Amino acid sequence: MNKQFSPTLLEAARVEAAPTFGPMNVFSGTKRGVEIDDVFPLQPALLNSFFFDFGQSTRGRGYDHHLKRIAILPHSPRIGTMEVAFHDDEPDEYYCNVRHHTIRGDNIEERSWTNDIFCRNECTINLDAPEGEGVLQDFVFVLRGLDFHFRGGDEHLNKIGMLENNGKLTMTIADRHPDSFDWGVKWAWVPKTLFTALGESRGTGRGGIRGGASDSIPSGPAVIRGFRFNFKGVRLPIFGTIPDHHIRDIGVFLQDDGRLSTYFEDRSQNDEFEWIVRWGILAT
User: Fold this and answer.
1) Are the CB atoms for 94 and 54 separated by under 8 Å?
2) One pLDDT digit (tens) per residue for the chain, 284 residues
3) How many structural domains comprise the chain?
4) 46 φ, ψ to 5°?
5) Which domain, by its residues, includes 121?
């Protein structure tokens, strides 16, 4: 299913000055625990895609884990680097592919927030509004990075996501029990005039060799405005409905030719999940 905001609204806003694009920043390969990309661009970098997979490690495609932390943190632990993490209580191998569009454009405001409130299952916060003469409805929330970290030990996973609505951001990560978690988010307020299309895709997917679910979106430089995944649950004769799982892979992949792919599965590769991805297409 593809749910797209009316392109006429964006055309009416008029693209006054299209952004200038630098090289796509790609961090990929086999990693372990927490890894650092030593060369990350200083200009604004907007999240285009992310994919993490325990199953492509040297232990093979049948391998999944609990989850302790997943993170993509530009300019951490210092300016000009990026911290990436995907692990349970042990630093096992995983494959990752994280991509950012690097751009230059007027009035792009980069922000970050590390949690200072207690979160369990789900939290909603009020984001700092854009500065200057603009108002919130003139800007678009775009992810730059994220960090989810269970406070106790590693956990099963039922749902995970970050979605912004009218300046409020809701973070979700949980198994079937309401475990507490720490979180962080890095985002940018991007002027709406720099986009040709904004939209939301959603549906139900099922794991497999070719990924969980896909959709078509307009072509052009695509960025992630938010996402959410939720396993639908498995009915077992003795235990009833078991809604949470180990995790093998998770990801949102946006291609500039208009292809969107989502991944959310354990090693069984056959469990249904519900997904939402909000995206934006930048002007060129």
Assistant:
1) yes
2) 555 544 434 543 445 567 889 999 999 999 988 899 998 999 999 999 999 887 665 444 446 566 778 899 999 999 999 999 988 767 778 898 999 999 987 789 999 988 766 787 788 989 988 876 557 889 999 999 998 876 665 555 778 899 999 999 998 877 666 666 788 899 999 999 999 999 999 988 766 544 568 899 999 999 999 999 887 765 554 545 555 666 778 899 999 999 999 988 765 556 678 899 999 999 98
3) 1
4) -105, 135
5) 2-282
